[in-house]
Inverse folding.
């Protein structure tokens, strides 16, 4: 299990390699990578700044990850979330889960990103082409996506 | 008591944190928000719509009836938008 909150970029290939190396019991890995879009609705966006709550963010991510390990038979998992200024096309987040079988890997990866979006204290401010920063409003659809994992 | 503000709450209140000494009647999250709301026009505007505010006490999500004590770290922020 591993959680990282960092300003610098990451290399998804190397991260996946490191996640599964030396564990030949792993049969499948699922990963999700979130990127900065260049549009917000119909408005062009040049980038965004991500703010977080140091301490609570890491604690929530570790708790979400531990819950995934309780629900699915996982061999390894990883959550990386970037903070600070980002440009369109940049990687924001990576979630990866590894298990003996694909179903646990697929489901737990989906669960982690859905829960992270509604529970982990991060906030996005999108930068317009005029350089103005606008705080992104939470989406009802994200809350619904997270809710469906409730038992 | 230490208050932390994030995202647009930080912008509206012009600070990311402050130390406050609320009166005795502030016993939980709901009464803290009520008291803060009366601390000036910036607070009145930022805290006007409680549905847009989430609260964490000592880095755990809190509810209106979550009790508070003097040494607590209380964070106020909008619904999260990471991922």
């Amino acid at each position: 299990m591993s959680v990282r909150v960092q300003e610098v970029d990451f290399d998804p290939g190397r991260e996946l390699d490191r996640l599964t190396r030396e564990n030949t019991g792993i049969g499948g890995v699922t990963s999700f990578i979130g990127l900065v879009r260049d549009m917000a609705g119909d408005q062009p966006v040049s980038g965004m700044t991500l703010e977080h709550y140091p301490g609570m963010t890491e604690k929530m991510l570790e708790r979400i990850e531990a819950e995934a390990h309780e629900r699915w038979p996982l061999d390894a998992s990883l959550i990386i979330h970037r903070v600070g200024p980002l440009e369109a096309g940049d990687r924001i987040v990576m979630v990866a889960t590894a298990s003996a079988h694909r179903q646990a890997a697929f489901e737990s990866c989906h669960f982690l990103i859905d829960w992270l979006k509604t529970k982990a204290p991060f906030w996005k401010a999108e930068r317009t082409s005029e350089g103005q920063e606008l705080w992104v409003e939470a989406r009802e659809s994200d809350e619904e996506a997270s809710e469906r994992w409730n038992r | 008591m230490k208050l932390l503000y994030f995202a647009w709450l930080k912008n509206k209140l012009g600070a990311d944190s402050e130390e406050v000494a609320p009166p005795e009647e502030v016993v939980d999250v709901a009464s803290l928000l009520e008291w803060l709301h009366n601390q000036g026009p910036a607070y009145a505007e930022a805290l006007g719509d409680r549905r847009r505010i989430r609260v964490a006490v000592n880095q755990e999500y809190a509810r209106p009836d979550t009790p508070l004590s003097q040494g607590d770290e209380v964070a106020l922020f909008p619904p999260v938008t990471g991922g």
Remarks:
- Chain B has one domain: 2-77.
